[in-house]
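[job 4471] stage=fold_predict status=RUNNING
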Amino acid sequence: MKRALTLTKKLTFILVAFFISMLLIVFALLFRLRGEYEESVYTINGENTSNILSKADSVFSSALLLSDMIVTEDFFQSNLSAMKDESDEDILEGIEGDILARLSTFQDSYTFLSDISLVTANGSIIHFGEGVGLSSQAIEEASALARSEEGASLWIGSDDGSIYLIRVIRRLEFLSLDELAVLFLRIDTKSLVASLRSTSQNFGTNLLLSYGDRLLYSEFSEIPDDDAVAFSVDSVPCFIYRGTLPESGFSYIAAVPRASLYNGMVESVVEAFAFLLLILILFLLFLHHIVKRMISRINALKDKMDAFESGQSFSDIEALPGTDEIAGLNERFDSMAKRYKEVVEDNYNRQIMLKDSAIRMLTQQINPHFLYNVLDSIYWLSQKYDADDIAAMSYSLASLFRAAVSSEDLVTLRKELELLKSFLDIQRSRFPDQISYKVDADDALMNVLLPKFSLQPLVENAVKHSIEEHGGSTEIEVKCSRCDNGVLFEVSNTGSQFPSDLQEKLRKGTVSSSSERIGLQNIDERLHLLFGDGSGLGFRNENGRAIVSFYVPWREDADSDSGR
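[job 4471] inference complete, writing structure tokens
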């Protein structure tokens, strides 16, 4: 028969296969990149160029937003209107000062904005910064072009490398729309491009910006053809990239030297491959060590399971140290093994308790049968001689014995309360005017099943300690209430208190009183046997009352109804 591979051999095979696969993948990638590298570099660098120029686009779009604000702001509207309508030179000088102060607040907030100028309707120029930088004739021509745009922004370039945004400011009051001034925003494009180049060495050697058919900025001595992707700039082979800036709408052409994209590429690939190979080898060695240690710990856990399976004492098995997942499995196994031992011992004890309970029940059934027949005879004799008290007591006692000899383990709450009434009728005959009794239970609970004789011993315990021992009177209340998926029963009484250690004594079976042992301990054991370790009696003293309680899962008698 073919022998199965061990886990160690399987993992070793996986590691070797992984190493070989990684080498093959690297070689395949290098071979493929050899043919596709140039196209990939072109595409990637084009995206890089677009991303870098997006910073310039934000400068131009900020200038557009600033022009919108200046054109519509109430400050400029009111002051420029006053300048147009006012003839007093002193007043005009004050207005110009206010406008200049306002313009000064903008320039520091807008990078590469070298000058903000307003050419007013009366011919004066208010500016903050380096100045308009255009001749009087150029200003007139630019203003005329701006007027033709009917309020829209106009972009023009200049020989000094600046790009201007020009816009006519018109009076908005009463929609008169008469001209108040022409706005000139001067952007230092050379400084802007130099800043972009400082962020990336591959940004390009030449850049051209245009808006529609108007050239705004150019570093080309000769403009490439529209479909050219390669072009020589001053005898340097370059890649050509074209695009449009999304916010300002400028078109651009950028040239990037091809050599700058290839420099050191071969050396980098060789170094990267050697480094990757070294990392793979180190990783395999480290992984081999981890796998070896993991296998040894798995084998140790297997030996531990084998020892437990062979019947070796659990306390003699060596613990497995560590904090990893295998140690977690070890802890789960330890917990399972201990629980298994507890379950075996618990089942063994339960079997013994059930056996003893069955024997005790058979023994207890002998006398009740005989006593029931005797009490029945006493009842008929009492009826014959009109001894009603004796008849009532014998009838109640006979009812109790009739229930005791029945084979039912569980009875309805209605039957249990009838048994309890029979017991209290007997006790009231013994202690007239000393017992008051109250039941608090909805009719919907009357068909709920509970262990037979589970309430009567609790009431008997209340009578014993409050009346028989102290000679006083007692108020007894039986309360039944729906709780979660079951019913909570509480029996409370006045005139006595539970000892603080009763719960512990009941669990240990060390209750001294024989009546309590037969009553309370019997109920507690039956609850545990029928409903598990979570069941049992609970004791507390509250507001001068001794309260004992227990919980029974919801179960109804299918053969009973609310009318029975």
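[job 4471] summary: The CA atoms of residues 531 and 552 lie 8 Å apart.
[job 4471] exit 0
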